[in-house]
Structure formats: C-alpha cells, structure tokens
Specification:
The structure holds two protein chains of two kinds. Chain A has six helices and 13 strands. By secondary structure, chain A is an alpha/beta fold. The model of chain A has no long low-confidence stretch (mean pLDDT 97). By secondary structure, chain B is an alpha/beta fold. In chain B, helix 3 crosses helix 4 and helix 5 runs parallel beside helix 8. The chains are: A alpha/beta, B alpha/beta. Chains A and B meet through helix 3, helix 4, strand 7, strand 8 and strand 9 of A and helix 3, helix 4, strand 5, strand 7 and strand 8 of B. The structure holds flavin-adenine dinucleotide (FAD) and adenosine monophosphate. Flavin-adenine dinucleotide sits at the interface of chains B and A.
C-alpha cells in the first residue's frame, strides 16, 4: 500500500520568534526553518511501515514556497520514495491544505495518510481531521501507536484522560503525537541518494483549489509579558510569601 | 446569533470546561443551546441544564456517542448545525478531534483555541506556542470555534434549562472503539485544579514523583509534568503540560526540576502565581517565576512538605 505524508516547512522549534513592531505578523527573515517536528514523526512512521513490508511506497507532500523543496529532500533522505511540491507563496489555511491533499489522495489512492497533529507555527491542529472529513475516511488523531492489520488499522491515541484505542477501516488518516516514535537522522549516503529521487512540481490551480486565505488576520501582537519575580532563600520564606503575600495557599 | 455549544463530559458528569466555554459562547451575543452527545448521558445533560445562559439542552443519547468518536460526533453536529450561526466546543482532545471535521463539512475555516471574543466575528488566538497573539476575522458563514477554556471564567450554575432529546445521526461506520487506559487519580484534574505541581527531567524517576504527590496532597493540587518527564516514562502522557499537552492556568503553579522551554511555558505561563524550584540559577523558568528557589529539589521538596505540614495544610 501507498502511504502519503504531508509535511510542512515551519520555523525551527528552537527559534524564539519575534512579532513585527507594526503588528503585521511574525518576523521570518533569516530565521532557521525546519520540518514540522510532528511531520518528522509521520515520515519516520511511514518509513517503518515500509521496512516492515506493510507499505510499498512513501510519498512526501508539501504545500508551500519553493524552499519547501528542501523539506521534501529531508523526507527523501530519511527514506521516502518521492515528493510532490505544491507551490504557494503565502500562508495556506488548514482547510485549503486539506482540499489540495484530498485531490492528491484521489489521484494517488494511498491507504494511509500520516500527518502531524499540529503545525508548531499556526498551532491549528485541524488539517488531518479536515482531510478525513473531505475524503469520508476514519481518523486516528494524536497517535502514540499505529498497527496495520489486514484492511484495518488500530490507533492508540493520547487523550485528555489517558490513552484510547480505535480501530479504523482503511483507507484512513493518522495524525502523530510526540511519543509515536523517534525520527532517525538521514545518513550522508542517503542524503546523496535523495538528490536523485523525483519531486513533482505543482500549483494549487492544478488541483482546482483557490489558495487565498479566508480568515482575515487583523493584527499580530506580543503576548502580555510576565515580569520576573524574586528569588527566595529558603522553603520557609517561600511558604510565607505564598501564604501572606500572594495569598494562593 | 444562535450558538450551539458542545458539552465536554464523561456521560456521568459534566467537565467544568463546558461552563467556561459557555462564557465564550455568550460573548457572541445570542441564545446558546448545549449539545450533550453520549451514552446514558442523562446525568451530564441534567448538569448542563444548570449552566446559566443555556437556552435548552439537546441530548443525543446513543451507543455510538459513548466514546465521542469523531466521525459520528461530526455527523451529528453537522446535522444540527443548520439552525445555528456558530458552533463552539472546548479545545479538549475531543473537541480538537471532531470540530475540524464539522468545519470541513460546512466548508468554513475553523478558529482554534480562542482566548477572547473581540466581536461577533473577531477572535484572538495564540500562535507559535503563545509567543504571538493573532487577531482574526472570520468570513461570512457559520463560525466553527474551539475555546481555550483557561482564558474564560466559568458561567454560574444557577440555570434550569429544559432537556430535549434529539435523534442520533447516521454515522459513516468507519471506526470503532477498542479500549482505553484512563489514568485514575484521587487528585483534582489538571485542567481545573487551583494548584498544580509539575515535575521535569530533574525528578530522575517515576518513583520520585511521590515527593511531589505528598506536597500535592497537602495543597489539594493536581500533578503535572514536562514532556521530558513523560517521554522518560516517569508519568503517563496525560500529565504533560505545554504547547502540545495540556494548557493550565491555576492560581499557583509549582515547577520542579523543569528548565522552562518555550513549549512548556506555553502551557502554564498564564498561571496567576508561578514558583520554580531548580538547582540551576540560570534556568529560563526563573524568568517567568514570581518566586524562584535555587535549590536541589531532593532537599527542597521534602522540606516544603514538612513546612506545609507544620503550618497545618
Ligand atoms: C514539537 C515539540 C513539542 C513540545 N511540546 C512540549 C510540551 O507540550 N510540554 C513540554 O514540557 N515540553 C514540550 N517539548 C519539549 C521541550 O522543548 C523541552 O525539551 C522540555 O520541556 C524539557 O523538559 P524539562 O524541563 O523537564 O527537562 P530539561 O530541559 O532537561 O530540564 C531539567 C531541569 O531540571 C533541573 N534539575 C536537574 N536536577 C535537579 C535537582 N536535583 N534539583 C533541582 N533541579 C534539578 C535542571 O537544572 C534543568 O533545568 C516539546 C518539544 C517539541 C520539539
Ligand atoms: N502547508 C502544508 N503542507 C503540507 N502539510 C501540511 C501543511 N500544513 C499542514 N500540514 C499537515 O497538517 C498537519 C497539521 O497542521 P495544522 O492543522 O496546521 O496544525 C501538519 O503537521 C502537516 O502534517
């Protein structure tokens, strides 16, 4: 079976972002960009399915600027077989991404699509679920374990109360949580090999999808800053302050 | 603007995130109905009827809603949505699971984890792990919204709405519940506790979390953790506080052996008072802590318990 892994190019998780003073957005000039961490986990899971002989082909898809091609190369170096870059030069909303992915899914007929549970830039946590609805498929979100068996997949999900396991008919959508696996680093030979793997270049119009955002961003601001507090010297002083100064115990 | 609020519950009881989301729903201006979809969920529906501001409570009682499967929940909500201008749900793992399906079915963008209602179609939400706040305006059409409930006060429970049964919708039949492993605890839930004490990698083992539990018992606190502590297997996944775990905003948050990575801060920096206990005085957690104690936790935490005990907690 084919596995599709949508991957997003985002600000690296180690970067402390800055809001532009004119409130028009976040300053992304000269900022380190990487694959969304949850998507690395998705790529890893797909490759492991291939190594187990469950998956036959892993296709990495990214919707974004030309530079997102580097993100696809990273996935190819990890072990994905080929890539699709849908070039869009501005922010794309989850529903738009889902619509494009739905068209790709119809063309490629994967049995499994593994997305990240959330992109760490917009923190939306929507795309996988939207894609599942558009395709009429089942979804196993926030996955910490994925077991494919015959024409179903069992997904263990990290939920508010603990863990929940659901059985989904294939084809299905999975979104990854942090503890699903630990993504590998690409080896140098694999990075070299990845350069020869094919990447299809597409546009949103190839899929009949209008990529224009529908939510209007009015402004982007700094969150309220906490002011640094004081250091206490002893536990006794701490308890006294919590009781008599802050009044929280 | 007629609003449908999706209740968060475990069939037997209602989570207080529902009453908090009600405050956000009411800010949209207009009558708010509450949907309780579950199995043998009459008790939860009766509790929902007490939330002040509820027009009526719709109870969809059917086996297929017992575990809130996203495919079935979305089918039901989409069917009911016709009469409403907006649908809201707490941004719980349930709400996050089914709401985007509803939005996609209705062909509207979803607005995730709002922290304020600035107008009938204008909302503020955190992005980049809360390092920026974005104000967005929704397009015409139905508004599909999840609510970061820590940002809203709970509505009173002085109401007496009527409970009306609604029939189940036909689900797509592509998923089934297999099992669950729920953490059992006598302590308050992380999301609603007034005091939270969390441990990080510095705790060194799951065993050592007993040190925190003893303090928690004195303060009626919930116990949380950093991702590193969960990844290391010290505590279950549902303890994780942060950008990709739970968001908490208690009166008092005590971080023990946690360095203060932005992903962790994203889940607790709206707490009223923050205490940090860390042996590294350079740890970033001290930049957000109201009270910092530079100390070895294995000495400081037992001392803290002892001091609380002495003072009658
Ligand atoms: C996509 C993504 C999502 C993430 N989501 C989350 C999330 O939701 N929540 C989260 O918490 N993290 C999250 N993280 C991880 C985050 O980046 C940090 O790695 C993590 O929070 C670190 O946990 P920690 O502070 O316990 O460990 P460390 O950073 O290792 O800090 C341990 C601290 O303990 C102190 N210490 C050690 N021994 C003692 C002692 N004896 N006494 C006192 N102090 C001691 C040390 O000085 C140190 O400051 C995420 C990361 C990524 C990439
Ligand atoms: N532009 C994109 N290109 C490819 N995949 C994406 C894109 N945006 C979102 N995704 C996928 O959807 C997941 C969830 O994103 P979001 O709904 O934005 O939080 C990500 O982890 C990716 O797997």
């Amino acid at each position: 079976m084919k596995v599709l892994v949508p991957i997003k190019r985002v600000v690296d998780y180690n970067v402390k972002i800055r809001v532009k003073p004119d409130q028009t957005g976040v300053d992304l000039a000269n900022v380190k960009m990487s694959m969304n961490p949850f998507d690395e986990i998705g790529v890893e899971e797909a490759i492991r399915l291939k190594e187990k002989g469950v998956a036959t082909e892993v296709i990495a898809v990214s919707i974004g600027p030309q530079e997102a091609q580097e993100t696809i190369r990273t996935a190819l170096a990890m072990g994905a077989d080929r890539g699709i870059l849908v070039k869009v030069d501005h922010e794309v909303e989850p529903l738009t991404v889902a619509k494009i992915l739905a068209r790709i899914a119809k063309a490629e007929s994967p049995q499994l699509i593994i997305l990240g549970k959330q992109a760490i830039d917009d923190d939306s946590n929507q795309t996988g679920q939207m894609l599942a609805q558009l395709l009429g498929w089942a979804q196993g979100t926030f996955a910490s374990k994925v077991v494919v068996e015959g024409d179903t997949v069992d997904v263990t999900r990290e939920v508010d109360g603990g863990l929940q396991t659901v059985r989904l008919k294939l084809p299905a959508i999975v979104t990854t949580d942090l503890r699903l696996n630990e993504p590998r680093y690409a080896s140098l030979p694999n990075i070299m090999k990845a350069k020869k793997k094919p990447i299809d270049a597409k546009a949103a119009s190839d899929y009949g999808v209008d990529p224009a955002p529908r939510l209007k961003v009015l402004k982007t601001t700094e969150p309220p800053k906490r002011k640094g507090g004081v250091k206490v010297k002893t536990v006794q002083e701490l308890v006294d302050k919590l009781k008599n100064e802050a009044g929280v115990i | 603007m007629a609003v449908l609020l999706i209740a968060e519950h475990d069939n037997k009881s209602l989570k207080d995130s529902t009453a908090k989301a009600m405050t956000a729903a009411q800010a949209l201006g207009g009558p708010v109905d509450i949907l309780v979809a579950g199995q043998d969920a009459k008790p939860a529906a009766d509790a929902a009827a007490k939330i002040a501001g509820a027009g009526k409570v719709l109870l969809a009682d059917d086996a297929q809603y017992g575990h809130q499967l996203a495919e079935n929940m979305a089918a039901l909500i989409v069917e009911l949505a016709g009469k409403y201008d907006a649908v809201l749900s707490p941004a719980s793992t349930n709400g996050k699971n089914f709401m985007p399906r509803v939005a996609a079915a209705l062909d509207v963008p979803q607005i995730s984890e709002i922290v304020s209602v600035d107008g009938p179609d204008t909302f503020t939400r955190p992005i980049y792990a809360g390092n920026a706040m974005q104000q967005v305006q929704a397009p015409a059409g139905k508004k599909i919204i999840t609510v970061r409930t820590t940002a809203f006060k709970a509505a009173e429970t002085t109401g007496s709405a009527s409970v009306e049964s609604v029939s189940a919708a036909k689900g797509p039949g592509v998923s089934e519940f297999v099992g669950e492993e729920l953490s059992k605890s006598e302590r308050p839930e992380l999301a609603s506790a007034k005091v939270v004490i969390s441990g990080g990698r510095g705790m060194q083992s799951g065993e050592n979390f007993h040190l925190l539990e003893k303090v928690a018992d004195r303060l009626k606190a919930a116990v949380g953790a950093s991702r590193a502590a969960v990844d290391a297997g010290f505590v279950p996944n549902d303890y994780q506080v942060g950008q990709t775990g739970k968001v908490v905003a208690p009166e008092l948050y005590i971080a023990v052996g946690i360095s203060g990575a932005i992903q962790h801060l994203a889940g607790m920096k709206d707490s009223k008072v923050i205490v940090a206990i860390n042996k590294d005085e350079e740890a970033p957690i001290f930049q957000v802590a109201d009270y910092g104690l530079v100390a070895d936790l294995f000495k400081a935490v037992p001392e803290l318990e002892e001091e609380l005990k002495k003072q009658g907690y």
